[in-house]
Protein 1
Amino acid sequence: YPDGIAALNQAWRAHYASFDEVKPFLPAQAPSERAWQEFLRWYRGSMTAYADFFLGTAREVFPDSDLYLCTGGDMAPEHGSDFSAQAQVAARHRAGVRITNEASSFPMNVRLTRMVDSAAQFYGAYVGHEPASTVTPTGMLGRIFNAVTCGARQLFFYDTPEVLVSKDGRYVPGESGDHLQRYRDWLKICQPRVETAIYYPNPYTRETKCDRQDFSDLVSQLRRFIDYDFVDDRLIHDGALRDKSILIVAGAEVIEAGTVARIEQWARDGGIVFVLDRRSTDWDGQTTAFDRLAGFNSQSDEAQGIAEVVVAQPQALPSIAALRDVNCARGYTGLQPDCEPLLVTRYDPKVEVAWRRKVGSGVVFAYYGPMDLKVYEQDWMVAHRLPLRFIRDCLATQVAAGTIKATPPTLNLSAEDVFKAQTDSGLWILNVAKESRTIEQGGVTIEVPARSIIRR
């Protein structure tokens, strides 16, 4: 704040007498949401600045060597890590980022590594993958698929009995080793082709700590039927949506107003946006920018109470229309006139739970129904995995209508435990199930053997 303490006080809604009084604070002690977000930017930026110094110094000493910035976790603020900033810094020094958080579950593994992968691809850094611990043989198969199809240069694994087994005085491949040996000729750097992006929100706000597990569960399950990149505010501002057709914004309590403006312009240029679960505010607590995108206005009001859901247009949401006893706990009235209702309450059809609206050449789909993905004994209603059904149905209708710029080749709306990825070397298909699976691709039926990877 070069204009002085008065400018900071006005922006932060604070009352500091001088900059000497400004000290680090916990979320509950932050004077405003903007103060908290700018504190996080400084906190993470300090670690990024150190990474910049570290990589710059190492590059001076090792001008021609591969250099990796080793980072981990899931970008929780207390870690101080900012994956897109770290990838940007690594690219500046002709270096890479090695993410050390892999898991055995393939969908979860994608969720954990994809922020680094997406940012590195965009900024021009290279990537290495390392598991947080040992992984199962099926996990190793998924790791191979993930690393190759995201464009990674390095795949680290621990020397465990699953990889190498001592037998008769010599080492032979274990089950994980068999996967590595089987696909060793495919371990080459590819260029991924991904049309879908998911906005990676800051899971911590000043007043609440968003449940990272809810977001993690949702995006992990989304990978079961479409491949995606992650984008955050930095990537969006730098143009990472340019080659995307679909953007999913889920559970984002706070989004910088400038980011929302760029998303809206991208939608007007033909993008398809899904907003789920939150009426996001900007750093100053205002919903103006988000409302203009999602279809709210100053008269919009939230209605709460358990009510039965009615599908207003069954042809648009066939998998939800086929369900019985679908309930919700909230909806909205007083939306913008161009909002076309998709889900409403039986109690009052004016209470809309989901809708769509045209935005320039693009479409915005909004969903504020139940976000449950798992069934627990204490749940008060049946979890139909409605947000997944909503996105799947809407994507299918957009494909049928021809309003998506290009049908995502990784879209898989039928086969369980089968994952597709598109690269410059073709279509890759992973089956982690114990049985073979068949999928339809371009009018052709393809059989994928149990626990295998095939290429087309």
Note: DSSP finds twelve helices and 20 strands in the chain.
Protein 2
Amino acid sequence: MKYKNISNSLYIKGRIGWKGLKKKEYLRKGDYRIINGSNISNGKINWSDCGYITKQRYFESPEIMLQKGDILVTKDGTIGKVALVEDLVQPSTIASGLFIVRNKDTDECDTLFLYYYLQTRKFKEFIHSRTEGSVIPHLYQKDFKEFKIPDISLANQRQISSKLNYIQKKITLNNQLNDNLMEQLENEFHNLFFESFNSKSFTLSSLVIETIAGDWGKTTLQKNFDTKTTIIRGTDFQDITMGRSSNAPTRYVKKKNLINKELQQSDVVVEISGGSPTQSTGRSLLITNEIKNSFKLPILGTNFTRTFKTENLENAILLKSYLQFLYLKRLFFNYENGTTGIKNLDYKNVLNIKLPDVRTNKLFKNYIKKYILFYKFIIKLGKQNKTLESIKDAFLKLYF
């Protein structure tokens, strides 16, 4: 296949340093969003997890104000993750770990075709050729001067991108349905919470049998460890329920680390430390047999998570619901400074705050039944997405 250089057809910009912008300046809410590399997963932007900045910070960098149709590419950390800006509900910009790739010549290159091409092994090879041997791998703007795509007609580009987009739309539809189901559960719990405000109170610690720190050891070299294990991070929580569990990293661990630490049904995993405390710290994941069985390997939490073991699934759902409610409302989430400067969730304090007991509400049992039904359906759609992702990958290999 012939390739052509399209670097002159692309507008490529990144944030020039941080211009003094620090993560502590991020706002919990606001009118101007900022996207980090951690907000990008499987070709999409997780808008619900993005931070906010002030109007002044947004307008000081007009060259990286996002437009509909922009493609984002990570240039630091996990290099080469891409996402398409399909819609802009609020004015948005990017953090220093991203590039904006904007198609200036739609008669030369179809934007969707470019977006899907950036997800191929060919682009990964292009990145590797630019970062190989670097002590700290980094993709530079000048690297795109040599960027090439398959030399095929615009009509053929659109034909290929339309087929891939059909699959992607089904994945997106499933994700939207899953989000809607979770939102319904969250709203129902919200009502239960406030309707039970005058009832007797209790603490979440009464639901927890044991708290376990995630840990797989100081090193992950295969020669020192003898068991392969899937490690779940806070950034994997949404991916897992959306059927992308294969993205969770695999590590070699000591067998003794699996004793009483392997995640089981009725466990609730909480992220106690994250790069963006106002947005990610405090997220939680309910482990069910459906989730556990989607992994071929044992699963553990990282040292940035805590696992709360409960007596049964009902207690786990109750704990997860309270934690999700507190996380979304940003209530009672007191932070303490970590040794690395990243703020950690003081989860012990959260577990011991007195809260209204929703179990006194006559609708509580119905809520649990609905939660189990919805959650199973969410996992089912997630598995369907996993299959669709495999089909999309097969098409990418076929076309490129």
Note: The longest helix spans residues 154-195.
Protein 3
Amino acid sequence: MKVLHTCLSSSWGGLEMYSLQTVEQLNNNGIKSDLLCFQNSRLYYEALNKKIRVHASAFKNYFHPAIVFKTSGLLKKNNFDLIHCYASKDLWLIVPSLRLAGLKTPLIFTKHMGSYIIKKDLLHRWIYSRVNIATVISSVIAKNLAETTPLIKEKILLLHNGIDTNFFDPSTVDHNLVREEFKISEGEILIGMMARFSPGKGHEEFIYSAKELIKKYDNLRFMIIGEPSKGEDKYAAETKTLASELDVIDRLIFTGFRKDAPEVLSALDIFVFPSHAEAFGLALVEAMSMGKPSVCSNSDGVLDIAVNNVTSFLFEKKDQMDLAKKIELLIVNEKLRNEFGKAARKHAVEMFDLSLFTKKLIGIYKNFNQ
């Protein structure tokens, strides 16, 4: 089977990493996979470094006849068995190109983020009528896609993102490495969150909850892992200012971006995921795979991941007092932390392992090749 994957983004983040990881996994599992991506993008060069067959495109706008004509030629020349798009914008290139080429190649589309724009006008119906199957990363995105596009529910399939649970494996990582780096003693409980500095990720609630908890416990340390994306430096600075104003800065560690995510997560005793709205929550899955008990907001894609009172405690999103209360339940009960952690690791391996995701995706592909 020969598949063309498209991710026409000039950015470098979760979407682009996901598409690259998927292509690599499929190639490793006997599905010959090419990648069509934006010319000279980070994704383009990362794919080349991994020896993936790459096709470059200058497509940026929704209407570009010259690039449609060129892409149509690419599709006819390579005779792909299937095309998989990773962003809705890509459909505006691929669908016209397929129609111009007169090809009936099956088209799959993966939806990663929700949209508040209703896309049921004549032009969108023309675009989406060419989509055979849309996969979505969480139940909330499935609902959003059905509500905002012409796609019928029968064409929407739930396919959670996967992670490498062998890479995020607590048995292979030194728990003390990062704790020693930041001088965290054995008797201290380290509570952390991992997210880029962006409004809506819940940094404020995390810091406010820290303020409440250190009033009662003197053995707590807090950690925020991540850095601001482009244009978000002001928000990062405001977050650090808030920590100073609330007088928690001496108990709070800002690590910045870390490449050693398994080691950092291993150092934590409790993981917090306070996001206001998350399509899925990959950092939460990674923490669970590392055997960490968690406290998570009770919203959106988190509900596909965390199991309340088994792997995690859910708190009312944006409610820092409820967050502090749920964290405290784990602070005072080491046995419960251990039970949640073991259940979290088991749940991550059984539900979100990358090999399981790849097997399911190949199964979807093969349904079109019978």
Note: Residues 334-352 form the longest helix (19 residues).
Protein 4
Amino acid sequence: MDTTETTATAASDNSRTVVLDTPIRRANGSEITEVQLLKPNAGALRGLSLTELLQMNTLALQTILPRITQPQITKPDTANLDAADLVALGTALVGFLVPKAQRADFLTE
């Protein structure tokens, strides 16, 4: 697999790593090339509509990603994400919201 492709891989049931097509460049000169998403709990989902998350609504993703990413990406970082990277992060997140019985099918489609 080409490492420059945007990919989401299952690290466990509680986290997923997404390799970014376009690195996030920080003001201090550092770059983030991959982001680990942690499975959101009810606290991370506060104030959000699950329907909007399942639809990968941009504003909903920009709200939740800073709550569940390592290294933590900020809301301004999410506003500057490449569209393909936002889709990859959203897809990985939605995978957490799908029941375990359907998760394997969802992640391979």
Note: Residues 1-11 have pLDDT under 50 and may be disordered.
